[in-house]
Write a structure and sequence with these properties.
three-stranded parallel beta sheet; single chain; 6 helices
């Protein structure tokens, strides 16, 4: 069983730090992207308890997601600005996913992992 503790982070950078410590103790690189987070979950076969998940839902909600997309658009290449703008528009229109929802979807896409929100 692995515990992600929402009280240990309030933004994506610190979330990546948290999961790097949990899943990659013996590695010399750290997770720094959503794709990277997805990649490290391959081969993981455990229950994940996300403590203080409501705090994470708020911390990684609309405002931080909007900022996340705006930063990628500002950076431009190598990011697909058109796609990111579409995701930002969907978020603003109330149809897009927040970062928290994206992370949940990534975890739940791995069939060997059971996620428990606490």
């Amino acid at each position: 069983m692995t515990v992600i503790n929402g009280s240990h982070f309030s933004n994506m950078e610190d979330f990546y730090e948290e999961v790097s410590q949990l899943f990659m103790k013996d590695e010399n690189w750290k997770v720094g992207t959503l794709d990277g987070f997805d990649d490290i979950l391959y081969g993981v076969d455990t229950d994940i308890i996300w403590k203080n998940s409501q705090k994470s839902r708020e911390d990684l909600g609309f405002d931080s997601t909007k900022e996340f997309y705006q930063n990628k658009i500002r950076i431009g290449k190598p990011f697909n600005v058109k796609l990111i703008q579409q995701k930002l528009d969907e978020l603003i229109d109330g149809n897009g996913q927040t970062l928290f929802e994206i992370l949940i979807e990534i975890i739940e896409s791995h069939k060997n992992i059971t996620l428990i929100l606490d």
